[in-house]
Amino acid sequence: MLDKQGIAKRIAKEIKDGYYVNLGIGIPTLVANYIPDTMDVVLQSENGLLGMGPFPFEGEEDPDTINAGKQTITMLPGSAIFDSAMSFGMIRAKKVNLTILGAMEVSENGDIANWKIPGKMVKGMGGAMDLVASAENIIVAMQHVNKAGESKLLPQCTLPLTGVHCVKKIVTELGVFDVLPEGGFRLIERAPGVSVEEIKQATAGKLIVEGEVPEISSI
User: Residue 54's pLDDT is what?
Assistant: First the structure.
């Protein structure tokens, strides 16, 4: 199975040269560490930064330079800092090519729940609702099952929704899945050492398996 770094590495392969990308809180922030130096990619942080770099080395942190999850980050040459109004203006105007988010649940028709668990303390929705309402390409980085071992890829979300019919792709510790327009999770890659049968057992939603499914390579 993939660890969190492995999930981030695999998602980094989905980023194309020239993209503007928003990284959500959690596993998505790790993606910044795996974007090749040869690619021209601009990372946007919704708290007001364009040109976010990888995490700083220990001892080189600047407490005034943080991402939306309040983690210390680095800034690349040419970076820009601005207020939240401008940041969300970029998001709502669809200037961001790709949004990478964490999730608590995703349904087989692409609904996402990632901001609230009733009865539990959660940081809040942040900019997630603006992002899912505006982004045309959303990839979810998440654990396949919750702490109780229950699937988080579901026929329907049970938690309060963040957005509907918006998720295009999911990467978990078990594999990579396309969310089909007509509904269902199409398995396109397996994590190294993970069988299709294991993925079937861990997926409550409609799982579509077509032919031989290759393992994720170069992780």
Answer: 87
CB 47 within 8 Å of CB 67: yes
pLDDT, tens only, 164-177: 999 999 999 999 99
What is the residue whose two structure tokens read 């690349």?
76
- Cα-Cα-Cα-Cα dihedral sign, residues 110, 210, 34, 149: positive
Catalytic residue among 46, 105, 173, 182: 46
List the end-to-end C-alpha distance of the chain, in Å, as a whole number. 11
CA angle centred on 41, ends 58 and 101, rounded to 5° = 75
- DSSP string spanning 156-179? S--SPPSBSS---EEE-SSEEEEE
Which residues does residue 72 pair with via DSSP β-bridges, in sequence order? Answer: 66
Local confidence band at 9 (pLDDT 50, 70, 90 cut-offs): very high
8 A C-beta contact, residue 162 and residue 129: yes
Return d(Cα 16, Cα 217) in angstroms, integer: 18
In 3-state terms, what secondary structure has residue 119?
A: coil
Note whether 190 and 213 are within 8 A (CB).
yes
What percentage of residues in the chain have a pLDDT greater than 90? 77
pLDDT value, residue 218: 66
Known active-site residue 182: no
* 8 Å CB contact between 108 and 154: yes
For residues 102 and 115, what is the distance between their CA atoms, to the nearest angstrom? 9
Say if residues 104 and 29 touch (Cβ distance below 8 Å): no
d(CA 22, CA 93): 14
